[in-house]
Amino acid sequence: MDKLIITCAISGAEVMKEHNPYVPYTIEEMVREATLAYQAGASIIHLHARYDDGTPTQDKDRYEAIIKAIRQACPDVIIQPSTGGAVGMSKEERMQVTELPLEMATLDCGTLNFGGDEIFVNTENDIKYFARVMHEKNIYPELECFEKGHIDMVLRLHKKGFIHAPLHFSFVLGVNGGMTGEPRDFHFLRESIPSDATYSVAGIGRFEFPLAKLSIQNGGHVRVGLEDNIYIDKGVLAQGNKALVEKVVELARQENRSIATPNEARKILRMETFNDENTL
User: Fold this and answer.
1) Is there a domain that residue 90 lies in?
2) Beta bridge partners of 109
3) 267 in a domain, yes or no?
């Protein structure tokens, strides 16, 4: 079984300091949370940019400043910006970050109701566009799937040559409007991807740690972070992303599974097929 790759989603686009005071907005706060998560065992930092007041942005200059600051503090960490942005952003706005020399980024693989009147729109043509741009720029895509139909979309577009191997999926479970995060949901998605694909699981809210344990036991990888869950235990706020990463490291220890370094993660995900120099 491969070593465990831990991704930490340090900020997200929706969660605010009113929900948890450790949610980072400023560049300095982003560096603090990324560094502490990295030191705790995260090899990938999933990144949503914010302005100092907490407003989400896909502005490439803001991303560049955050990425360079994190890179200075954690030279070998894998930085994975979001191309999802926030609900309501156009695809052109969301893709601004790909104008930077990135190593990895997320690629959302289907449309989803996000509660109320919010719809996270990713049409088939949007997905083709995102995939083409990322392939042309040698950016390794993490394929974010919120339900089984999103996996089917990936496999269809892979067969048609729009999405290229190696395939690395992220099962995001427990989102309002997507699949729940019960064990049956995890196993259904895990059994729906090719045998040579890799996957990570992001459980939202109460699903975070039960799904993390399942993924650890079944050879998958794990995403945690304040974007997905603000609690370390029921009703107890996490004191930063570090605490969430440390809890996953402990779950892995209990299952006798070692933690991957960033360079080990690159090998597990077969990132050498992409441009090794394509980083800030």
Assistant:
1) yes
2) none
3) yes
pLDDT at site 276: 52
Q: Determine, yes or no, domain membership for 277.
A: no
Rounded to the nearest 10°, the torsion over CA 198, 166, 110, 98 is 120
Mean pLDDT to the nearest integer, 158-172: 97
Q: How far apart are CA 4 and CA 26, in angstroms?
A: 30
Q: How far apart are CA 154 and CA 193, in angstroms?
A: 9
Of 66, 53, 47, 62, the C-alpha closest to 9 is: 47
Q: Is residue 280 a part of any domain in this protein?
A: no
- Number of domains present in the structure of the chain: 1
Give the pLDDT score at 273.
75
Structure tokens at 63: 């991303």
In angstroms, the CA 202 to CA 7 distance is: 9
Q: How far apart are CA 178 and CA 159, in angstroms?
A: 25
Q: What is the pLDDT of residues 231-260, one digit of tens each?
A: 999 999 999 999 999 999 999 999 999 999
State the residue range of the domain holding 196.
Answer: 6-271
Backbone φ and ψ for 74, nearest 5 degrees, come out as: -135, 80
Q: Write down the pLDDT at residue 43.
A: 98
The closest of 178, 219, 179 to 200, measured between CA atoms, is 219
The CATH number covering residue 219 comes to: 3.20.20.70
Percent of the chain with pLDDT over 90: 92
Q: What pLDDT is attached to residue 206?
A: 96
Task: Work out the angle between the directed axes of helices 241-254 and 27-40 (0-180°, nearest 10).
Answer: 10
Q: Is 45 in contact with 76 (CB distance < 8 Å)? A: no
